[in-house]
């Protein structure tokens, strides 16, 4: 059995390849090729634009692929959603497609743009958005650099943003959120109905989720006397419940847990004050919940 996975080419490519590597499935790419091999001889990868991923998954050119919910909705195609993988180009959060207009324009909401021109890459979603509000607009496809098209080439735009900084830099003001989006692992319905392929795709989802859960978290190990255990546990913001085991000395216990990396700065000194000893902070590769 051979499984072919679509990797989003473009802004999400590097973040996706890093995620695959952390999941234990590094993909080996060639700068001149759209094909990539992996450490698993049963899995090959193909670099595909996120905007086109749903089409090739639905057609069966690839068995599964990663792309944004925005492009799945935009395509209108039928694919199986395997897993939400909430990461973006710069962060682990969702992105937003927003309706934005020039700072000095009179527009305050979608209804103010009746009979105006809207530039966007997300044409179908934008048309549906205005249609549901019974606002007649002309939606034009933008081939890129959408932020610079208002006000000379369009009255407003619908553009994707993580932080809003690019919009502000181009003197644009967000009016409304059109769609929230995050990366998803999707599968061809016929491939996902195949028992062996489904098992492989589900395993990939499990490992990718585990790698994501491990980001920005660290493990903590420490030793503590039995009489000080309650004080130590009162400090720990455990992921679930810490693992506690006996040491060779019956008066001592070992505690193992997972915390947010940002919390370690505050937690470790407090653990020391609670009489914890031998505190070790270590990185995590995967956290499977």
* N-to-C order of helices and strands: EHEEEHEHEEEHEEHEEHHEHEEHE
> Which bin fits the share of residues in helices?
25-40%
Quaternary status of these chains?
A: single chain
Separate helix tally: 9
SSE-based structural type = alpha+beta
Please give the radius of gyration in angstroms: 24 Å
Give the neighbour order of strands across the main sheet.
2-3-4-1-5-12-6
Distance separating the two termini: 29 Å
The main pleated sheet reads as:
7 strands, mixed
Q: Which range does the strand content fall in?
A: 25-35%
| Molecular shape | globular
Unreliable sequence segments: none
State the total count of DSSP E strands: 16
Average pLDDT for all residues = 92
Describe the model.
By secondary structure, the protein is of the alpha+beta class. Helix content is 28%, strand content 34%. The protein contains nine helices and 16 strands.
């Amino acid at each position: 059995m051979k499984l072919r996975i679509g990797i989003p080419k473009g802004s999400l490519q590097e973040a996706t390849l890093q995620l695959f590597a952390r999941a234990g499935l590094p993909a080996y790419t060639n700068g001149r090729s759209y094909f990539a091999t992996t450490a698993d001889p049963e899995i090959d990868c193909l670099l595909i634009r996120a905007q086109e991923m749903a089409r090739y998954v639905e057609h069966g050119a690839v068995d599964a692929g990663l792309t944004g919910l925005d492009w799945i909705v935009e395509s209108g195609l039928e694919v199986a959603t395997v897993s939400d993988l909430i990461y973006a180009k710069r962060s682990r959060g969702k992105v937003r497609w927003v309706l934005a207009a020039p700072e000095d324009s009179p527009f305050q909401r979608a209804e103010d743009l009746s009979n105006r021109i809207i530039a966007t890459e997300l044409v179908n979603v934008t048309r549906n958005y205005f249609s549901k509000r019974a606002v007649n607009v002309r939606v034009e496809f933008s081939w890129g650099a959408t932020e610079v098209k208002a006000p000379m080439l369009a009255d407003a735009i619908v553009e994707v943003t993580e932080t809003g900084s690019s919009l502000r830099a181009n003197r644009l003001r967000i009016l409304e959120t059109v769609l929230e989006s995050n990366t998803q692992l999707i599968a061809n319905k016929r491939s996902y109905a195949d028992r062996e392929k489904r098992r492989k795709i589900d395993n990939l989802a499990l490992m990718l989720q585990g790698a994501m859960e491990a980001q920005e978290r660290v493990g903590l190990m420490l030793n503590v006397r039995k009489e000080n255990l309650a004080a130590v546990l009162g400090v720990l913001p455990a992921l679930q419940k810490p693992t506690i085991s006996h040491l060779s000395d019956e008066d001592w216990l070992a505690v193992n847990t997972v915390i947010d990396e940002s919390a370690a700065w505050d937690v470790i000194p407090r653990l020391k004050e609670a009489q914890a000893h031998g505190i070790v902070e270590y990185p995590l590769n995967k956290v499977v919940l």
